[in-house]
C-alpha cells in the first residue's frame, strides 16, 4: 500500500485503527519528497527531523490510549508566507533569506496543537505576488501534470506538493485567487474561506483587506477537515469573525450523497465567454448538467460590476502592499545591504537593500501602489477603486438574494508553459479574473477539479457562497466531486502521468 496515495481522511482512519503509524506515514511522504523534489521543486525547506519527532510522539500517545485530534499524525505542508517558529520563513523573497521567526502564526499553533507533523515550507511567488510561482527568488515550481508548465500562483508550491503526492494536506493563502487558481491548474481542491474566518495573525501581509489563508487538498472532505482545524476566532486578529464555524465536515459528507434538491445555483454571466479556453467552458457546462441531475436549479445571474474587478483589485492590492512592505527596510530584520561607496545613511541602506532584496514584480507593484496613494492621485485611483469594490459587494448581495451559491470556471485557461507570460504582466494578471471578485467582497470560494481540457490538463470549477456560509462550498463541492469521480471511475489525479523520479 502506497501511503502517499491515501487521502487525509483515509490516513486518519488507519492511524486511529492502528493499522499504520504516523512515523510510517510521515516517512513515506518524506521519501516521496526526496524522490520528486528535484523535478517539482515544491518545497523551500524540509522539516524532516521535527516532523518525525512529532509523528513518534503521536504514535506513543495513541498507543497509551490518549484521545487525539482526528488529524493527529497526518502530515502537512505550509506555504512560506506563514510564520513558523524555528523554520526559515522567506515569503519567497531574498529580502527575508535565512529569517527564522521566534513565534508561530495562529494557523501553525492550531496545526501543532492537533499534532500534525509539518513536512516543510512550500515555494511561492515573492510576497504572494504572481499567478505562476515564477516570481520566487528561489526558482520555479513545476506542475506535476507537465513539468514544462506552471503550477499556478502565488501558492504553486502547496498545490504542486499535494498534486505530486508529497503531502496529503497543505496551507495556502489567497489574496486574489492564489489558492483556487493553483488548485484549478493542478487538479487539486483549493478553498478561500470567508474573510476573517481563518486568522491572519502571523501571515506576512501583502494586502491586509484581501489576504486569507485556507486549505489545499486532494479531496473536498480533506479540505473541510483541515478548515475546521485552522478556522475560528482569534483575538489577536482584529478582523477575525467572533462566531463558530458552520458544520463544514458535516456539509462535505452530506454533499457526497449527491442530493442537491432545492438548491439554487447561479451561473455568473460575466465570468465566461471571450478569453475562456474552449475545453474549460465545455467541462464547466458538463458540470452544470451533473448538478442539475442531482436536483439543483441552475439559472444565469448578472453581476455587472465584476467587469471592473480586475482594475479595482490592481489598485487596491498594490496600494496595501506598498504600505505593508515598507517594513522591509534593512534595519530591523532580514537582508541588509550597505551602499558600495559614500556615507552609510538610513535612506541609502534602505534603497540598497530594497533594490537588491525585492524582485521585479514586487517592485512593479510597490511603485504602482505608491503612485495610487500619492497626493493628487489618491481619490482618482485608490478612492475610486474602493467605490468599485462596494459596487461588487452589492452585486454579490443582490445575486445571493436570488440563489444559494454562484459558480464559474476557476481559471480561464489550463496551465500555460513556464515563461510564456513573464514579459506580459497584464496577460499574467488576467489569470485571476474569475477569482478576484470573491476577495474584494470577502466571500468564500472553492475550486474543485472537474475534468481535463482538450490539452489533457486539469480544469477547475469554482463555487462562491455568501460570507460565513462556507458550508455551502463543501456541500456543492463534494456533490460535484462525487459525481465526477463516479463518471471517471477514479479521482482526477489518478489520470495524471507518473512523474520521473529519483530512485
UniProtKB/TrEMBL annotation:
<feature type="active site" description="Acyl-ester intermediate">
    <location>
        <position position="178"/>
    </location>
</feature>
<dbReference type="InterPro" id="IPR023631">
    <property type="entry name" value="Amidase_dom"/>
</dbReference>
<comment type="similarity">
    <text>Belongs to the amidase family. GatA subfamily.</text>
</comment>
<dbReference type="InterPro" id="IPR000120">
    <property type="entry name" value="Amidase"/>
</dbReference>
<dbReference type="InterPro" id="IPR036928">
    <property type="entry name" value="AS_sf"/>
</dbReference>
<dbReference type="GO" id="GO:0050567">
    <property type="term" value="F:glutaminyl-tRNA synthase (glutamine-hydrolyzing) activity"/>
</dbReference>
<dbReference type="InterPro" id="IPR004412">
    <property type="entry name" value="GatA"/>
</dbReference>
<feature type="domain" description="Amidase">
    <location>
        <begin position="24"/>
        <end position="473"/>
    </location>
</feature>
<dbReference type="Pfam" id="PF01425">
    <property type="entry name" value="Amidase"/>
</dbReference>
<feature type="active site" description="Charge relay system">
    <location>
        <position position="79"/>
    </location>
</feature>
<keyword id="KW-0436">Ligase</keyword>
<comment type="subunit">
    <text>Heterotrimer of A, B and C subunits.</text>
</comment>
<dbReference type="GO" id="GO:0005524">
    <property type="term" value="F:ATP binding"/>
</dbReference>
<keyword id="KW-0648">Protein biosynthesis</keyword>
<dbReference type="GO" id="GO:0030956">
    <property type="term" value="C:glutamyl-tRNA(Gln) amidotransferase complex"/>
</dbReference>
<keyword id="KW-0808">Transferase</keyword>
<keyword id="KW-0067">ATP-binding</keyword>
<feature type="active site" description="Charge relay system">
    <location>
        <position position="154"/>
    </location>
</feature>
<keyword id="KW-0547">Nucleotide-binding</keyword>
<dbReference type="InterPro" id="IPR020556">
    <property type="entry name" value="Amidase_CS"/>
</dbReference>
<protein>
    <recommendedName>
        <fullName>Glutamyl-tRNA(Gln) amidotransferase subunit A</fullName>
        <ecNumber>6.3.5.7</ecNumber>
    </recommendedName>
</protein>
<dbReference type="GO" id="GO:0006412">
    <property type="term" value="P:translation"/>
</dbReference>
<comment type="function">
    <text>Allows the formation of correctly charged Gln-tRNA(Gln) through the transamidation of misacylated Glu-tRNA(Gln) in organisms which lack glutaminyl-tRNA synthetase. The reaction takes place in the presence of glutamine and ATP through an activated gamma-phospho-Glu-tRNA(Gln).</text>
</comment>
<dbReference type="GO" id="GO:0016740">
    <property type="term" value="F:transferase activity"/>
</dbReference>
Amino acid at each position: 500500500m502506497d501511503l502517499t496515495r491515501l487521502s487525509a481522511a483515509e490516513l486518519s482512519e488507519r492511524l486511529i485503527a492502528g493499522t499504520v503509524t504516523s512515523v510510517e506515514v510521515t516517512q513515506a511522504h518524506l521519501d516521496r519528497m526526496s524522490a520528486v523534489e528535484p523535478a517539482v521543486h515544491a518545497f523551500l525547506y524540509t522539516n524532516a527531523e521535527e516532523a518525525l519527532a512529532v509523528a513518534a510522539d503521536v504514535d506513543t500517545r495513541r498507543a497509551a490510549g490518549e484521545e487525539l485530534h482526528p488529524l493527529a499524525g497526518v502530515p502537512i505542508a505550509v506555504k512560506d508566507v506563514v510564520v513558523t517558529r524555528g523554520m526559515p520563513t522567506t515569503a519567497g523573497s531574498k529580502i527575508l533569506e535565512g529569517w527564522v521567526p521566534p513565534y508561530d502564526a495562529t494557523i501553525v499553533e492550531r496545526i501543532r496543537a492537533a499534532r500534525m507533523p509539518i513536512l516543510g515550507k512550500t515555494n511561492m511567488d515573492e510576497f504572494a505576488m504572481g499567478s505562476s510561482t515564477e516570481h520566487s527568488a528561489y526558482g520555479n515550481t513545476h506542475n506535476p501534470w507537465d513539468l514544462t508548465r506552471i503550477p499556478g500562483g502565488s501558492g504553486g508550491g502547496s498545490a504542486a506538493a499535494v498534486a505530486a503526492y508529497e503531502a496529503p494536506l497543505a496551507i495556502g493563502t489567497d489574496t486574489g485567487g492564489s489558492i483556487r487558481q493553483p488548485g484549478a491548474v493542478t487538479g487539486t481542491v483549493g478553498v478561500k474561506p470567508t474573510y476573517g474566518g481563518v486568522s491572519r495573525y502571523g501571515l506576512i501581509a501583502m494586502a491586509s483587506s484581501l489576504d486569507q489563508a485556507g486549505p489545499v487538498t486532494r479531496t473536498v472532505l480533506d479540505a473541510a477537515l483541515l478548515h475546521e482545524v485552522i478556522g475560528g476566532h482569534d483575538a489577536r486578529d482584529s478582523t477575525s469573525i467572533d462566531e463558530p464555524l458552520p458544520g463544514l465536515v458535516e456539509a462535505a459528507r452530506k454533499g457526497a450523497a449527491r442530493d442537491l434538491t432545492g438548491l439554487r445555483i447561479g451561473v455568473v454571466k460575466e465570468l465566461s465567454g471571450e478569453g475562456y479556453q474552449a475545453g474549460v467552458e465545455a467541462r464547466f457546462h458538463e458540470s452544470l448538467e451533473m448538478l442539475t441531475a442531482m436536483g439543483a436549479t441552475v439559472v444565469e445571474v448578472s453581476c455587472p460590476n465584476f467587469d471592473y474587478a480586475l482594475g479595482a483589485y490592481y489598485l487596491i492590492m498594490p496600494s496595501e502592499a506598498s504600505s505593508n512592505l515598507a517594513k522591509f527596510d534593512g534595519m530591523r530584520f532580514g537582508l541588509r545591504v550597505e551602499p558600495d561607496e559614500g556615507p552609510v545613511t538610513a535612506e541609502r541602506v534602505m534603497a540598497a537593500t530594497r533594490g537588491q532584496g525585492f524582485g521585479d514584480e514586487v517592485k512593479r507593484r510597490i511603485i504602482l501602489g505608491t503612485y495610487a496613494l500619492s497626493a493628487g492621485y489618491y481619490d482618482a485611483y485608490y478612492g475610486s477603486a474602493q467605490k468599485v469594490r462596494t459596487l461588487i459587494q452589492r452585486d454579490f448581495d443582490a445575486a445571493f438574494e436570488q440563489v444559494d451559491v454562484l459558480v464559474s470556471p476557476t481559471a480561464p485557461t489550463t496551465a500555460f508553459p513556464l515563461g510564456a507570460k513573464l514579459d506580459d504582466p497584464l496577460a499574467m494578471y488576467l489569470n485571476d479574473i474569475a477569482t478576484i471578485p470573491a476577495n474584494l467582497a470577502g466571500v468564500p470560494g472553492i475550486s474543485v477539479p472537474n475534468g481535463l481540457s482538450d490539452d489533457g490538463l486539469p480544469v477547475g470549477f469554482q463555487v462562491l457562497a455568501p460570507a460565513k456560509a462556507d458550508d455551502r462550498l463543501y456541500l456543492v463541492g463534494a456533490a460535484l466531486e462525487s459525481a465526477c469521480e463516479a463518471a471517471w471511475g477514479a479521482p482526477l489525479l489518478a489520470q495524471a502521468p507518473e512523474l520521473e523520479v529519483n530512485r
